[in-house]
């Protein structure tokens, strides 16, 4: 199996980037996906590496010592009143650490506004050799495959892409076959996890599972393989926050189980084009 895997920060959000990198290395990951853009959410740690120079130095050391690479950073949200230039320090960090992508999502319903701002984020990221990969989230304003495709086609930036999260696309009731119709050049990485097959009707329950109760791949009810096989082969970032598992096993063992179950699932569901 040649698939490459990244440990997403939300999976081990209590771990600062240096610790997270060593955990990823011990568990066998190829990459880490860091969260250096502080959003100020309740209980969210601040890992702003552009400001915390000591943490930046330790992160760089951890990457060098382990050979783990930085895949992407997050989250360049598009929201009312935002200033794209505030993301530039994090982009500088990503470029310095060897990252390739910036994850983005859209949280304002104002189409004209979000098209303009997403385009500005793409232009800013291009200066640092980074792609900007738009993720649709079921609780966000842009929450469907159709609206995401509309953004990419309208903005028409050569460093813009789409980032499919298995949880989100299942919750949005999108058909896997639709992914195969999209340009392969749009795909740079994807988010892996699983979840109960039943789609919550309550916003709070949708949010709870999304942020703190996802399942190991193969242990939920999502047809993960149908989505993965409809996209090109690329790195898979395992974004699998589960507070109960972390309490039971600790961050390191949770991260290891995330990767072990994903690899076992991939081996049991090989791509037909391989």
UniProtKB/TrEMBL annotation:
Keywords: Isomerase. InterPro entries: IolE/XylAMocC-like, Xyl_isomerase-like_sf, Xyl_isomerase-like_TIM-brl. It holds the Pfam family AP_endonuc_2. Transmembrane segments: none annotated. Residues 24-246 form the Xylose isomerase-like TIM barrel domain. The keyword Iron does not apply. GO terms for molecular function: isomerase activity. PANTHER family: BLL3656 PROTEIN (PTHR12110:SF48), HYDROXYPYRUVATE ISOMERASE (PTHR12110). This is Sugar phosphate isomerase/epimerase.
């Amino acid at each position: 199996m040649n698939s490459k895997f990244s440990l997403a920060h939300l999976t081990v959000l209590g771990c600062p980037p240096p610790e997270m990198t060593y955990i990823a290395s011990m568990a066998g990951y190829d990459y880490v996906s860091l969260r250096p853009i502080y959003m100020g959410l309740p209980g969210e740690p601040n890992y702003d590496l552009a400001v915390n120079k000591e943490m930046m130095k330790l992160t760089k050391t951890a990457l060098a010592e382990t050979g783990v690479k930085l895949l992407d950073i997050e989250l360049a949200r598009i929201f009312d009143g935002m200033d794209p230039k505030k993301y530039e320090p994090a982009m500088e960090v990503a470029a310095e650490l060897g990252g390739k992508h910036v994850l983005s999502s859209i949280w304002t319903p104002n189409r004209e506004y979000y098209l303009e701002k997403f385009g500005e984020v793409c232009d800013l990221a291009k200066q640092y050799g980074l792609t900007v990969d738009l993720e649709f989230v079921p609780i966000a304003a842009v929450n469907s495959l159709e609206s995401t495709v509309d953004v990419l086609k309208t903005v028409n930036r050569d460093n813009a892409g789409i980032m499919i999260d298995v949880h989100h696309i299942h919750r949005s009731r999108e058909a896997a076959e639709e992914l195969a119709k999209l340009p392969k050049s749009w795909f740079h990485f994807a988010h892996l996890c699983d979840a109960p097959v039943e789609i919550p009707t309550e916003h709070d329950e949708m949010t709870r599972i999304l942020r703190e109760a996802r399942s190991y791949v193969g242990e939920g009810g999502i047809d993960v393989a149908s989505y993965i096989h409809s996209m090109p082969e690329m790195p898979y970032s395992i974004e699998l926050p589960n507070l109960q598992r972390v309490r039971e096993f600790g961050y390191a063992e949770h991260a290891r189980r995330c990767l072990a179950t994903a690899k076992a699932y991939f081996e049991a569901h090989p791509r037909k084009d391989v």
